[in-house]
User: Fold these one by one.
Assistant:
Number 1:
Amino acid sequence: MWSTEGPMSDDYATLKSAVETAGFFTTFQPIKRPGDRIVCASRQRNSGLGGNSFWVAKRGEAWFIATWAPRIYRVQESARLTELCVLLLQREDEQAYFDFDEAVRAEFGLVAIRDEEFIA
């Protein structure tokens, strides 16, 4: 089962609060250790989260946002991270993201990185 607490979860408190205040859902789904990644989703189901969904992770001072493909991006404008997440959750498509569209990547300064560049 997914952990809701962990040594890194405090780093995600502002994002978690903003997403949930906007009416969406979050959970921690560890990559390697509890609290090292937060999942954001537009819907909650009996079996878990769904709808528009993606994950966010912080490594050092850098923030990353990723789709389930996975396509991983470094967030250049970390001050706009919560704005970005809420925007993505408000989209009408209601499906897990394969990739983020070019306009969103440009507006929020998302920089694509290779899977091996992301330090899990």
Note: The two ends are 19 Å apart (CA to CA).
Number 2:
Amino acid sequence: MLASVTIHYKALGDPRLLCLANLAGYADGADSALAKMTRLWSVCTFRQTDTPDVREIRACLGPRGEEHLVACGLGDDHTTDAELAPGVVRVRGCEGMIEWFGEQPAQQVKAGKRRAATARRDQRGRLLRGPSDVGDALPLESPLEALDSSGPAKHQPTPAQDPDPDPEICALSGDPDLGSDPAPSEAPPGDRSREHTAPGTVLALPLAPVPHKPVDLRVTPGPTRDREDLRRRLWNEAWTLAGLEHQKLKSEGVDSDARNCWSGMPDANSSEARALFARIDEHMLGDKPNVDAVREVFRNRILVAAAEARWNLKHLRFFTPARMWNAESFAIAKALSPAQVQASTQQRAGPKGARENAEPTRRIKTL
């Protein structure tokens, strides 16, 4: 087990680390020595001692690590410190740096007791953690106990009165002890909302607990969100169909050793992915695009590319995302059909039997 260690900036240029690296033969020099010393200081922090076992020192610094530690000045033994027994090595740099780890349990206990003493609990003794538990909380004081008919409410300090108040303030205050009370407006019969209250009296009305209603954080689907979902769905379908056709062509023997450039999904910021999104946006016209028509356009483009690889090219070097979603290639291919590609290939090859019925080629004798 290890504990966290903070390395002071002065340790980065300490020549003793370079000396340790030279003695132990570390390949990376002082950097390796600093990393290994950090691990040793972490062990000391966890053990809460600056005299770890020699086996732990060797595990961190390598064979004869305790000898190299003392030789470079990063440790002490009985030859440099008479208080140490033979076979005991003190690691320097631990004083004042490892004690915090041992003080943590006591601090955690103290913090827990402080929180338990001031925490609010419900009727079952459970801790209240948020506003949703307010309804189950024990009231700190009953509303009826907060009222006192002889004076102000409990825990409410009586406002200090100015011995010589301003007459203008007295006239506007409505307090009979400070000035004249303005004429009350007439209230309808049975309305007791404007009855005069005794000066200094604070009314505390009992409040019913407000039920906690969880807030729905889900975004309500709208036109913009629906369109974005359609774009991503069409993008996924087109890429998947192209990958399936690529595998089908390889299984038929068309360039069976070709690299599969359709495996997995590319990064959304790659040039191929952005090109496919651009072709989709070109065909999703209007607020309510015809998704089936757009899907058929991309399906036809992929099948035309497969027909060209199968009947004409006999390889898959052009059956790639960069060529498939290229704007110019896409515009040419979407105007064709797989049947037209196959028919044009057969026409170029000539009718069946044309080669057998052709006249033999004349051979010219040469000297």
Note: The longest strand covers residues 75-76.
